[in-house]
Structures are given as structure tokens and as C-alpha cells.
Design goal:
The structure is a single chain. By secondary structure, this protein is α/β, with parallel strands linked by helices. The protein has helices spanning about 10-15, 15-20, 35-45, 185-195, 230-240, 255-270, 290-295, 330-350, 405-410, and strands spanning about 30, 50-55, 65-70, 80, 85, 95-105, 120-125, 135-140, 150, 165, 175, 200, 205-210, 215, 230, 245-255, 275, 295-305, 310-320, 320-330, 360-365, 375-385, 390-395, 415, 430-435. The strands form 6 sheets. The protein has a 5-stranded mixed beta barrel. Strands 8-5-7-6-9 form a 5-stranded mixed beta sheet, with no helix packed on it. Strands 2-12 form a two-stranded antiparallel sheet. The longest helix is centred in the C-terminal third of the chain and has 19 residues, at about 330-350. The relative contact order is 0.13. Bound molecules: adenosine monophosphate and magnesium ion. Magnesium ion binds near residues 212, 279, 284 and 330. Adenosine monophosphate binds next to loops.
Length: about 450
């Protein structure tokens, strides 16, 4: 399945050095976050392989074709209220209007007769409007209601009120959903309202990942002196699953050239993208960087960001297959931050998603001062809350160390302090990205 893309020939033509040469002032040892994002964005190509799925299975998938409405929604003019349908031309400004009831229209069972001037039809919400009628008065606004007739008090409705027009939601032939959209619950309902049971979506992205480091132990193993449990594979599992990827968890790989080469080759031959953690920092006494460089077109960066300075990016090849590579740093918070701000958008773009812009940012008051140096983007873990005056404010979680995963777990948002920003004073506005959204 992986590497089966029509866009393949195109991807092999794009080399990293081509992309990088378009950037002025490129310095891999002091790369601003926006530049790293630009290079990644330009190098990555969508996978472009389509499958048809039932709409229930299409949730969170990327739509692979425009959907045009095959019908009018609603298909007829109908009533928005329970009440009485009549001719709006019967209304007179200052006089009550007595009407004779000539029949009833139910949702799904129309009134087939005609309605003359001075007459009305009892009508239910969603029932088709009788042809001669253009106005509905809600039942609760009427007076003197009995079996034979009802009175419409002067001034409570105007012609055309409480009528839903044919095609008002969506007219036949108009675009309902666009290619590249990540389908949400409302979209599933919209497709159902058009009678569409199956849609073409991009196939899921296959992402392989592993952790590197001799000090890492997996759950269930003894934690020897100086060792830590591997947590990165679990945060990556969570983040990739949320993004809708098919994942291949390859475990912990020791700092050993043969083991690393085998892992990179297996990952490359079985996935569209590879994410590793650890082994990319300066002076690291391991073979991760060496193996990445040997197997492909990979560049090593020191990004102007905190946490998450070192990172490798590129594409590697093995036995005619290729895969994009994101070599994330080892520190647990750095892994999450580089994933969210550098890898996420790239993966969405590979998935064929069209709106791959950064997540929405809010400007919020900082409760306290925050230390910040210009020249790097900082991603501080924050807690957004509402103060006693009902105003939103943010404070950062205690320790902001890049190894302190608790800071991510306690936080409900990321405070993004931009590249040129200096010291934040209490009361200053800062940019915040919420972890959780409604949909
Ligand atoms: P490295 O980038 O390999 O030098 O790792 C930086 C720091 O992150 C070291 O303290 C590692 O022990 C830690 N680290 C690396 N990988 C993991 C992992 N998978 N889980 C938890 N900590 C890790
Ligand atoms: Mg390491």
C-alpha cells in the first residue's frame, strides 16, 4: 500500500537542496520555526490514493473529491412551525384576519386540496406548503381557535414568515463539500441529507515510529540504574491516532548501527512517513544521525525554538521504496512540541487535507511575567482559566523543562511566544492554542 502514489515521480524530483535554495539566509544551525515549516511544507507531497467508504467510516477522513448536491434540500417549500398556512396577500395591516380551516398538512403527508383567499390549512413542522400558501402563523400566536376556523391577530406575522424554501439549505448542483476537507460530524449528516451513502476519501497515511537510546526500557522491563521508561512511543501513538494515521510501532531500537539500519529500512519499506525520537542532538554519541544520512536525503537542523532545538528532516530510501523522515529530539516535551508544530502540518498535507493552516490562536492576558529571550519561538505549557471577573487568563505550568512531561499533562493549552518577542509582563497579551476543541 505505501509508496503506491501517482505523485511519486514528482516527489523524487524535489530534492531538499532545491527547496532550501529558495530560502534566503538559510542557516541550518539557527533556523527560525517559520522557515523550517516552509521547507517541510514545500518538500512534502500528498500521497493521493483514494478509497470509497461508507459515510459512518468517513469521520475524520480526508474527502478525495468535491461533493455536489444531487437534490434540492429541502425538496419542497415547507413549514418551519406547527400552525396555520395561508395566503400572505390576505393579511391587512390593522385588522385581525379570520380564516376558515379547510384541511390539515402533516410532515410526510401533504394537503392535496386547494386553499382559497380567506382559508387556511392546519400545518405541522416540515409539512409541504399547499401551493397557494406562502405564510405560516405559529399556533401560539393565533386566537379564537376552533374546529372550523382561527383568527390571526393584526401585526403578528408578515408574508413569507415561517416558510422554509425549497433548496434553501442546498440547491441542486451547488458544491456541498470540497475535496481536501477533513470530515466532521456535521458533514456526515450533510451527506446523509443528500442521500449519499458512500464517499471517496484519501487512504490513511501509514506512519512508522521508534524510539532510540540504550537507556530506554519498555514497560514490563526492569528499570536498570540510569535508565528511563520509553514514553515517547506512547505520546506518538496518541498524537498519530488522533490525526487518523495507521501506525506501526517498532519499539525501542538500541544505539547500534546494524539495528538502526534494519529499523530504518523496515520502516521505509512499510510506511509513508517515519518518526523517530532521540539521537539527533549535537554531539550525541550514537549512530542515528549517521544512519539517517546514509539512507537518504536528510538534513539536520538546530531550530530556533524551545523546547525542541535539534531535528532531522528529509526522505530516506530502501530497496526502491521511500518515506519521509522526521527525526524528533529525545526529550518527551520536545517530541510533542516538534510533532505539533513541525510534523503535524506536514502529515496533514501528505494526507491530502486542504486546510492545513496552524490551529486557531487566541490572544489572552498572561497572569504573571514569563521569561523570554528574542531569537527563538517558545512553546510554554499553559493553563487557561476564567478569573473572578469572568475574564480569561493564562498562567504557565510550574517546571517548563523539556523533559517534564507532567507540564504537558497538566496544561490545557500552549502559550506560543513568537520569535522576536522578549520578556512578558503580567497583564500582557500572549498567543494561546487550546489543546481541546468542541468537535
Ligand atoms: P537524546 O536526544 O537521544 O540525547 O535524548 C535526550 C533526552 O531525552 C535524554 O535524557 C533521553 O534519555 C530522553 N529520551 C530520549 N528518548 C526518550 C524516550 N523515548 N522516552 C523518554 N525519554 C527519552
Ligand atoms: Mg539518545
Amino acid at each position: 500500500m505505501p509508496n503506491d502514489t501517482p505523485a511519486e515521480s514528482e516527489t523524487t524530483r524535489t530534492t531538499l537542496s532545491n527547496v532550501i535554495s529558495c530560502l534566503s539566509d538559510y542557516d541550518p544551525d539557527a533556523l527560525p520555526v517559520p522557515d523550517a515549516q516552509t521547507i517541510i511544507r514545500q518538500f512534502i507531497q500528498p500521497i493521493n490514493a483514494v478509497e470509497k467508504v461508507a459515510i459512518r467510516s468517513a469521520l475524520d477522513r480526508v474527502l478525495a473529491a468535491d461533493i455536489v448536491s444531487p437534490i434540492n434540500v429541502p425538496s419542497h417549500d415547507n413549514s418551519a412551525m406547527d400552525g396555520y398556512a395561508f395566503r400572505g396577500s390576505d393579511l391587512q395591516k390593522e385588522h385581525d384576519l379570520p380564516l376558515k380551516i379547510v384541511g390539515t398538512a402533516y410532515a410526510g403527508r401533504a394537503y392535496e386540496g386547494s386553499v382559497a383567499s380567506g382559508e387556511c390549512v392546519r400545518i405541522m413542522t416540515g409539512a409541504v406548503m399547499p401551493v397557494e400558501c406562502d405564510t405560516v402563523i405559529p399556533q401560539e400566536f393565533t386566537r379564537d381557535e376552533n374546529e372550523q376556523g382561527v383568527t390571526i391577530p393584526a401585526g403578528v406575522v408578515r408574508t413569507g414568515d415561517n416558510r422554509r424554501l425549497k433548496g434553501e439549505d442546498l440547491a441542486i448542483g451547488t458544491p456541498a463539500l470540497q475535496k481536501g476537507r477533513i470530515l466532521r460530524p456535521a458533514d456526515l449528516g450533510l451527506l446523509a441529507s443528500l442521500g449519499i451513502g458512500e464517499v471517496p476519501v484519501q487512504r490513511r497515511l501509514r506512519v512508522a515510529f521508534f524510539s532510540t537510546g540504550d537507556e530506554l526500557r519498555s514497560i514490563g522491563e526492569t528499570l536498570d540504574e540510569g535508565c528511563v521508561y520509553d514514553s515517547n512511543r506512547y505520546t506518538l501513538h496518541g498524537m498519530l491516532t488522533r490525526l487518523g494515521c495507521d501506525i506501526v510501532d517498532m519499539g525501542v531500537i538500541k544505539d547500534d548501527p546494524a539495528a538502526l539500519e534494519a529499523a530504518f529500512r523496515t520502516a521505509c519499506e512499510n510506511a509513508d512517513a517515519i518518526i523517530t525520537s532521540g539521537g539527533v542532538s549535537v554531539g550525541a554519541a550514537d549512530y542515528t544521525k549517521q544512519m539517517m544520512a546514509e539512507l537518504g536525503d536528510v538534513t539536520f537542523w538546530k531550530i530556533g525554538m524551545r523546547p525542541g532545538r535539534p531535528m532531522a528532516f528529509g526522505k530516506i530510501q530502501s530497496h526502491g521504496k521511500e518515506a519521509y523522515l522526521f527525526g524528533l529530539p529525545g526529550n518527551p516535551v520536545a517530541v510533542m512540541v516538534t510533532f505539533y508544530f513541525l510534523a503535524r502540518q506536514a502529515l496533514l498535507h501528505m494526507m491530502g487535507a486542504s486546510a492545513v493552516e496552524a490551529p486557531p490562536m487566541m490572544r489572552v492576558v498572561s497572569k504573571a511575567a514569563i521569561r523570554k529571550r528574542p531569537g527563538r519561538t517558545e512553546y510554554q505549557r499553559g493553563i487557561l482559566s476564567i478569573n473572578s471577573e469572568g475574564i480569561q487568563e493564562v498562567r504557565i505550568t510550574g517546571s517548563q523543562g523539556s523533559g517534564v512531561l507532567r507540564s504537558m499533562s497538566e496544561a490545557n493549552c500552549m502559550v506560543v511566544l513568537e520569535h522576536d518577542r522578549a520578556e512578558v509582563q503580567a497583564g500582557d497579551l500572549v498567543n494561546v492554542i487550546l489543546f481541546e476543541g468542541l468537535i
